[in-house]
Design brief:
- The chain is of the alpha/beta class.
- It is 31% helix and 21% strand.
- The protein folds into three domains: 178 residues, Rossmann fold; 194 residues, ANL, N-terminal domain (Rossmann fold, 3-Layer(aba) Sandwich); 92 residues, ANL, C-terminal domain (GMP Synthetase, Chain A, domain 3, 2-Layer Sandwich), CATH 3.30.300.30.
- Helix 1 packs across helix 2 and helix 4 packs across helix 5.
Length: 533
Amino acid sequence: MDSLRKCQANYTPLTPIHFLKRAASVYADRTSIIYGDNVRFTWKETYQRCRRLASSLKSLNIVKDSVVSVLAPNIPAIYEMHFAVPMAGAVLNPINSRLDAKTIANILKHSEAKLLFVDFQFVPVATEALGILQNLNRTSMMVVDMPRVIVIDNLGSPTGVRLHGGLEDEGEEYEELVRRGNPGYVPDELEDEWDSITLSYTSGTTSTPKGVVCSHRGAYLTALSLILGWEMGKTPVYLWTLPMFHCSGWSFTWGIAARGGTNVCIRNPTVQAMYEAISRHGVTHMCCAPIILSILLEAKPNERVAINNPVQVLTGGAPQPPALVGKMEALGFSVVHGYGLTEATGTALVCEWQESWKDLGANDQAAQLKSRQGVGILSLADVDVVKDLDKLESVARDGKTMGEVVLRGSGLMKGYLKDNGSDRESISQREMVRDGLEIESVIYKHPCVAEASVVAMPHPKWGESPCAFVKLMKDTSAMSSIGEEEIISHCKQNLPGFMAPKMVSFVEELPKTSTGKIQKLQLREMARSFVIS
C-alpha cells in the first residue's frame, strides 16, 4: 500500500473556488445573483466577473497572502470577492460594517491590509478610519502602511460617490477593475489546502476582538457540511439577511455556489425589503440573527406577504424560545437552530430534524426540540461537552447537565493572526446554558413581547434572583396597560413561583453586539444596581 502515491490525477487540494468553476459549467445560465430591480447575473457571468477582478488584483501587486479588506453590506461585490480574492492568492478580510472608525482603523493596521474596498455608503466612516491611520504615521514612531482604497459604487444606479481625503488613489471604482480585468484569467492552482482564505475578526463579546484565520480546506468542508446538515437541496433561492462579513455568511457565500442556487442580495434587511424579496423571487432559504426574526414577527399585517411554501430559516446565538419558533412557523418560516463561532468558520452544530417529531405537531414540545442546537456538522471530527477542560470528562447527554463545548475538526480556524499564544485556549468555547432560558421562553409566549432576556440580579436573602429585560411589540394596542406585574403574573401562571422574575425592566432596545447577539454581560451590569424592595 505504501507504494501508492497521490498525484495530480487522484489528489486536488480542497478549495471553495472549485464550487464557482463547477457552477459556471453545470448551472451556466441559472441566475446566480439578484440585486435590486436591474441587476441579475448568471453563474457563467459571475465566474467571468470574478476572474476579471482577480486579474486586476494581480495587476495591483496583490500576491500570495496579501490581505484584501472590504467594508460593504450584502451586495454583489462582496459576494464576488469571496471567490476573486482567493483566486488571486490573497486573503479576504470582510470588515463588520457596523464598527466605528477607530475599530476599523485597528483592523486595517493589525491585518496590514494592502487593499480596502469601500461601499459608497461607508465612505464617511472609512475616511475617518484612514485619517486615524494617517495621524498615527504623523504623530508616532510607528509606520503604518496605508491600504490602496477602491470605492464600490451602487451597481445599477451609480451615485458617483468617491473617497475623499486627499489620498493618492482617490477616485478608483470597483466596476472599473472588473471591466479592465482579463476574462480569460486562469488562477494559479492551489498547492496547499492549508493556505489562508479569510481573515475574520471576532465580535469581541468575551474578549478583545481577534483575527481568525481560516483555510481553504476548512472553508470547503464547512460549506459542504452545512448544506448537508441543513438538508439544502439543489438550486435554492437564498436571501442574504445574514451579513456576509459574519464568518463569510456562515460559509454560505461558497455553499450557494456549490448548490447552484440564487443569491438574493439586499442592502438593508428591512421588513419591506425582506418580505418583498420573499414574494418576488420565491425565496426558499435564509440565515439570520435572532433580531431578524423579531423584525419579521413585528411586521404590520399590510407589510407581510402570504408565504405558500415554507422559508427555511437557520438562526444562531442563544437557543430561541419555543414560543418565538412557534410564532415564526405560523407565518410560514420553518426555523432551525444552530450554534457556532467565528473560530469554527461559522456554524458548528445544526438541529437535524427527525421524522418522529412530526407526530408532536406545532406545539411547544416540537418547537422546544427545534430550538435546540443539535449535532456537530460533518467537517468536525468530534463535538463534546465536558465538565473540566483538563480532564475532558464528558457530561451526560440529557439536555440538562451543563459543561463546556469542545470542538475538534478540519473546519476549525488555523489560529489567531499574530496571537499564537491564545490558539490552544481557543479550541474550546464556553457556553453556559442557565435556567434563564426557560424563563425567557415563557415571557416570549406573552402576545405583546417582542424580545426578552433574563439575567441575575442581587437578592438580599438568596444572593441572586432572576431579572427580566423586556422589549414590547411595536403598535401593540394594549401596550399602555402592560406593566411589570402583568409579566410577573404571566410567568407565575406558567412556571413555579420561585422561577418567576422578581423585577421586570422595560427597554426600547436590548443591547446587542454588531452581529445581533444580546449582550447579557451588559444587562448583568445594569441589573447589579437593582434593589428588591
